[in-house]
Amino acid sequence: MATGEFLRNQWYVAATSAEIGTTPFRRIICDEAIVLFRRRDGSIAALEDRCPHRKAPLSLGEIVGDEIQCGYHGVRLDGSGRCTLVPSQKDLPIPRNFGARSFPVIEIHALVFLWMGEAGADPALIPDWSTNTAPGWAAVHGYHYVKANYQLVVDNLLDLSHVTYTHKTTLAGPGVDDVPMEVFVEDEVVKTQRIIRNVDPAPIHRATKGLNGKIDRWQLSEFRAPIYILVTLGAEPAGTTEALQVPSHLVLNSATPETATTTHYFWSVTRCIKTDDLELSRKFLEITYTAFDEDAAILEAQQNSMDRDRSGAPLVNFRGDRGGAAARRIIATKLDEQARLAAAAE
Ligand code: FES
Ligand SMILES: [Fe+2]
């Protein structure tokens, strides 16, 4: 498994909007330390979290106006990374090319997206997570720090057969194993789909939709490279799902790599039904936290087990792994392309 390489020319979720204020906020993304802060006009700046003077983390400093001041010798940088002040030699010009790298940032859908590449930061490439904030939708948000490679999180969300075994008290219901998952690959998008008919409801269906009789339920996952998985879940009384009607809820997942073995997992649960029902929001938040705690636990144990594995045996792909395997192929192809371009540029 490719572990320590990351796709650079991509948008990654760096933070939730709520996390970024007027104090420096440090986050490691793709093994690079970044510092984010909000300027007075509300816009967000992102710089490498390393002072160009003696390499102290800028995040240990403070924000002064729209600039960040290093906490060691007071060098100041603006949001573009340009140095504006060297306190110990105010009488001299600021050295040419002395500054920090800055990263393109876009704040949208209640999230902060960061472009990790050198060029090509096209806003159109940001995933459509608009149900986070769109009128007519209600959303709850969560974050898990998962000590596992991000591709394990992607695998997890593309093979929802695990709900039967990992989420016994929340999402598990009968029949999931018995229905083969369909997989569709279109360019760089992988879709997996499972429609399960005439089964008893899972605990989440009872708790959030009051469904107690037989139901039809469906699970759709849609992966966009490198880290985005939209999961659409639905349940209706049995016999009513022909047209895959209004989803019970959507789960918007962003599995931002921190390092080769750790992931910032941002998720939102959004719904377009009973949007004013705060008790329903509370239930969704509670159930999803419970379920994703379970995912984090198994993924961390899996990573640990893989780290100790000296057998050299590959991961085995069953039918349910086809979605995850397709996503890995897309990531691997893009990593190869990135390496080729980097080699050509040398
Ligand atoms: S290390 Fe930042 S000002 Fe010296
Ligand atoms: Fe799960």
Describe the structure.
The chain folds into two domains: about 120 residues, Rieske Iron-sulfur Protein; about 210 residues, Naphthalene 1,2-dioxygenase Alpha Subunit, Chain A, domain 1. The protein is built from five helices and 17 strands. The longest helix is centred in the C-terminal third of the chain and has 30 residues. With about 350 residues, the protein is α+β, with helices and mostly antiparallel strands. FE2/S2 (inorganic) cluster binds next to loops.
Structural class: alpha+beta
Poorly predicted ranges: none
- Overall outline: globular
Strand order of the largest sheet: 11-17-16-15-14-13-12
Indicate the radius of gyration in whole angstroms. Answer: 22 Å
Average pLDDT figure: 93
CATH domain class of the largest domain:
Alpha Beta
CATH architectural group of the largest domain: Alpha-Beta Complex
Which superfamily, in CATH terms, is the homologous superfamily of the largest domain? Naphthalene 1,2-dioxygenase Alpha Subunit, Chain A, domain 1
Structural features:
single chain; 346 residues; alpha+beta; Rieske Iron-sulfur Protein; Naphthalene 1,2-dioxygenase Alpha Subunit, Chain A, domain 1; 2 domains; seven-stranded antiparallel β-sheet; four-stranded antiparallel β-sheet; 5 helices; 21% helix; 32% strand; binds FE2/S2 (inorganic) cluster; binds fe (ii) ion
Map the helices and strands:
Blueprint: E1 11-16, E2 25-29, E3 32-38, E4 44-48, E5 62-64, E6 67-69, E7 76-77, E8 83-85, E9 105-108, E10 111-115, E11 138-146, H1 150-158, H2 163-166, E12 182-186, E13 189-199, H3 203-209, E14 215-224, E15 228-237, E16 249-259, E17 262-271, H4 278-307, H5 322-345
Antiparallel strand pairs: 1-10, 2-3, 3-4, 5-6, 6-7, 7-8, 9-10, 11-17, 12-13, 13-14, 14-15, 15-16, 16-17
Helix pairs in contact: 1-5
The structure holds FE2/S2 (inorganic) cluster (FES) and fe (ii) ion.
FE2/S2 (inorganic) cluster (FES) binds next to loops.
